[in-house]
Amino acid sequence: MEPFRIRSIKQYHELRGLAKPAHPLVSVFRIEDIIGLNTYEPAHIIQDFYAVALKTNVNASMYYGQREYDFDEGSMIFIAPNQVYSIQAKNRLTHSGWLLLVHPEFLWNDPLMKRNKNFDYFGNAVNEALHVSEKEKKTMDGIFQNIREEHLANMDKFSRPVIVSQIATLLNYADRFYHRQFLTREKENHSVLVRLEELLNCHFNDENLKNGYPPSVKDVADALNVSPNYLSGLLKVLTGKSTQQFIQDKIVEKAKERLSIGEMSISDIAYELGFEYPQSFSKLFKSKTGSTPSEFKRSLRM
Questions:
Q1: In the chain, N or C: fewer CB atoms in 10 Å?
Q2: Can you give the pLDDT of all 302 residues of the chain as single tens digits?
Q3: Are 235 and 193 in contact (CB under 8 A)?
């Protein structure tokens, strides 16, 4: 079944039983104003605008892309245009907080439009909401309130730049809190690192790997049920490396183990580690160690 498309903020208000928006391209309101989901709630929804929500006391499940969104009390979610999502309420829907809707046309030719593409939490593969503390929630609450007051005031030539600057402030704080989350959710994040190590060890020890391919960033992110951007951001904080660098370092580590045994040819090692061409393996090895596999192998005999 094709997803149900919401083409305008006005249409969103109508779907949720809200009053007509004060502006056709931007709206911010209390989530409590959405009394409940429709009995004919679409199974899958696509909308033509951004949505940023600060939610608490939620008793519903949300799916964004192909994964369930992990959000709990005191969390934020971010939806980009043209991304599929769905909401499934548990019994009668209850929730509170803020919801900001912004059409891309409202940000037209503004630098913020380009920056939105660099905010990791708008990725459709993200499966963890932004968890915020009570102090952070108060900060966000104040910004949402400022946006609401400005967009409900009489519009003049200053209204749009003022609202855009407030949205930029909101997203900058969200970016700070998003990267802070890598540090404060230490147990969960180190669990991801342990699972990544186990995943790569199993991959490179697989006897059936020969003539395959080294795992891609997307491969390992999918296996760990996180987005590629989230995984790279997490690894940068925990190890100082991107996911690609982490995978390459693991390849070199396994290659050194095989080279030290001395029984396999360099071509066989390359094939065993998933390289289609030995030259590609040798190039990576030299870029990481400063020597070719042959040079490294000879150095072990000195």
A1: C
A2: 678 899 999 999 998 889 999 999 999 999 888 876 656 677 788 899 999 988 876 666 666 554 555 555 458 888 888 887 777 766 666 678 899 999 988 888 777 666 655 555 565 444 456 778 888 889 999 999 999 999 888 778 888 899 999 999 998 888 888 777 665 555 556 677 888 888 888 887 765 455 456 788 888 888 887 778 778 877 887 788 889 998 998 888 888 888 887 678 888 888 888 888 889 889 998 998 898 988 888 887 65
A3: yes
Give Cα separations from 93 to 61, 89, 96, 203, 252 (angstroms): 10, 5, 10, 43, 52
Query: String of b and e for 239-273 (b: at least 16 CB within 10 Å)?
Result: eeebbeebbbebbbebbbebbeeeeeebeebbbbb
Can you say how many angstroms the Cα of residue 236 is from the centroid of all Cα atoms in its chain? 14
Neighbours of 282 (CB within 10 A): 19
Question: Within 13 A of 77's CA, how many CA atoms are on the CB side?
Answer: 26
Residue 151 in tokens: 């967009």
